[in-house]
Write a structure and sequence with these properties.
By secondary structure, the chain is α/β, with parallel strands linked by helices. Helices cover about 35% and strands about 25% of the residues. It is built from 17 helices and 22 strands. A hairpin with a 5-residue loop joins strand 14 and strand 15. Helix 5 packs parallel to helix 14, helix 7 crosses helix 8 and helix 7 packs parallel to helix 11.
Length: about 500
Amino acid sequence: MRQVKELFSSLGVDCNILELDQVDDGASVQEVLSEITNQRTVPSIFVSKVHVGGCDRTFQAHQSGLLQKLLEEDPAYDYDLIVIGGGSGGLSCAQEAAVLGRRVMVLDDVVPSPQGTSWGLGGTCVNVGCIPKKLMHQAALLGQALTDSRKFGWEYNQQVKHNWETMTEAIQNHIGSLTRGYRRALREKAVALVNSCGEFVEHHKIKATNGKGQETYYTAAKFVIATGERPRYLGIQGDKEYCITSDDLFSLPYCPGATLVVGASPAALECAGFLAGLGLEVTVMVRSQLLRGFDQEMAEKVGSSMQQLGVRFLRKFVPVEVQQLEKGSPGKLKVVAQSTEGTEMIEGLYNTVLLAIGRDSCTKKIGLEKIGVKVNEKTGKIPVNDVEQSSVPYVYAVGDVAEGKPELTPVAVQAGKLLARRLFGGRLEKCDYINAPTVVFTPLEYGCCGYAEEKAVEVYRKENLEVYHTLFWPLEWTVARRDSNTCYAKIICSKFDNPLHQQ
């Protein structure tokens, strides 16, 4: 501590020192500091309300020039930037702003799911989305590889079975390492991380409420909303009591058994696919079409391939009631469903019901109406311009809450980074949202970029298009003697872009 005092003295800076062992409530102050900074050692040094770290990090900040920038900041606001939401887009923006020498705070808090599931820093993708989903998809692919391996000369006699608990423990351990890495990165860049819910109370001012109900107020020159989305429920009897969503599946402590997946979104078909690949009985209940918004020819090929793997599809039905027949891990549930085309009712028995019918933006409880930020009343998304700016000039939105933008992690990361550079680095580059590629990790993986054929017809008219398509047989499938007429590719072309058609 003496060295730090000498450093500030040499810079001509006065500093206030609080000796925690000399005050009556030192223990409680230490607890609050640990929660805010994730640092349990002393000294804990703040400069212009930004947590720099201990002695070593303070000297590192001095050598890099960051300390001088913090000392020169305008004290009109507590922070230059406050990011609400610690997911991919929010963290990208926060870290880039900090690299540019700005005072940055991230507010992040996860409201537990109705089943009580919660997680750490990193948002949906890392904790309950892309990362665990891809790893469980890989687990299913390994099962298929075992089958293929005999054709490649592998001989084994013992019965091979899958252990759900082993898989989920390993995946959760990996996720834990990622979230710890995010926390470490924020500390190294002197970004203040507060585990609290943020809510605007007036212009440039928010209230942060932690899990104990303690409230703290902060001000900032600019704000970024990156609160993401959470799974939607059906609003029927028994859905929140007995059903799970993707928020719960990836850390489920027991094998889900016979599973009904409700929905036909990418998440629905991906989860149904890997559960079937792990050897479980899977049924998918579809209200209308598979993969709405995607190319429907491709979507139906994905569905057909899943049927060949044993997935059962119930088309044109929606659940109207979920009843618990037996408790357990898993228990037994009865689902009553009604036809979307008439009065027909059906019933089914399952161990687990997984809802994947869409997601709702987390914008309702953060006080946006108090400062005049316009929100789409139907979707909860925030309309933004081409620089991610909302209807209130100092409030921006990135990621899934931004209206009309692709809901993709790499896109959110790029948008957040470029936003910080424009706000604080004098840069002009905007995020290019056009033709962002995406992949649906069903057993037969579906990758796409650009318009679906239906959208291309709408934009260009059918007579102005040429569609090239082919079936193909991957080399890896040949020796294993897997079906040669399953894999499919097509390219949709505009004749206007072909010089030969312009002559």
